[in-house]
């Protein structure tokens, strides 16, 4: 029988499979993020835009654009990018908007053409430009990081009141970061993440503490669940035999 720590790495409940972004104009959003990420444009099985990873980028760096009335968003979930240089001029040219330049924090806060915020860090070394972490604001950063490590695998690193998951199989970026922000649960995020479950039902996820929010439909063949912090995520179940 495998030790729990080894099982968590080799047999996680689910694997990360990209992000889902609610947007009123999926085509416009796809064009911006394709440019920002150097990705490849396409469409999913339902005909909605999808941005797949560009050359030498992680296989699970996938962004699905879903038509929806974009909700009010206090950047409850956002991505962080490393820039190729000192300024985000290429992103601004592609259609991003400056929310604030670096100040006490050494990064730019930008918004895509529809107002979805993300952070951009100036290049400081030879690490490649592009997306490098997913940031989740929540009330219980340590607890939620441990929960997601239990679902995706990897290990938790705590730093003050914040925490991060590192080394989860198939997670495409360096870190899945959890930052404590009291009261953030009153916002509904435009950005969710997409998972592929190892099992053909939700038993393991529900037993771990997830809550089912919506069943699959003809347009969206996946379940929508919420983690213990109320963050919604999508789950495609393993196909039956």
> What is the CATH domain class?
Alpha Beta
Kindly state the mean pLDDT as a whole number? 90
Largest sheet: 8 strands, mixed
Strand order of the largest sheet: 2-3-4-1-13-16-15-14
Helix content: 10-25%
Kindly report the CATH topology.
Answer: 2,3-Dihydroxybiphenyl 1,2-Dioxygenase, domain 1
- Portion in beta strands: 35-45%
Quaternary state, please? single chain
With helices defined by DSSP (H or I, 4 residues minimum), what is the helix count?
5
Shape: globular
Number of DSSP strand runs: 16
What are the salient characteristics of this protein?
16 strands; alpha+beta; eight-stranded mixed beta sheet; 2,3-Dihydroxybiphenyl 1,2-Dioxygenase, domain 1; 241 residues
Question: What does it look like?
Answer:
This protein is of the alpha+beta class. The chain has one domain (4-236): 2,3-Dihydroxybiphenyl 1,2-Dioxygenase, domain 1, CATH 3.10.180.10. The chain is 18% helix and 36% strand. It has an eight-stranded mixed β-sheet with strand order 2-3-4-1-13-16-15-14, with helices on one face. Strands 6-7-8-5-9-12-11-10 form an eight-stranded mixed β-sheet, covered by helices on one side. Strand 15 and strand 16 (232-236) form a beta hairpin. The protein is globular, with a radius of gyration of 17 Å.
Explain the layout of strands and helices.
Layout: H1 4-10, E1 14-23, H2 26-37, E2 40-43, E3 49-52, E4 63-67, E5 77-82, H3 89-94, E6 97-100, E7 108-111, E8 117-121, E9 130-138, H4 141-152, E10 155-159, E11 162-166, E12 175-180, E13 191-197, H5 203-208, E14 211-214, E15 223-226, E16 232-236
Parallel strand pairs: 1-4, 5-8, 9-12, 13-16
Antiparallel strand pairs: 1-13, 2-3, 3-4, 5-9, 6-7, 7-8, 10-11, 11-12, 14-15, 15-16
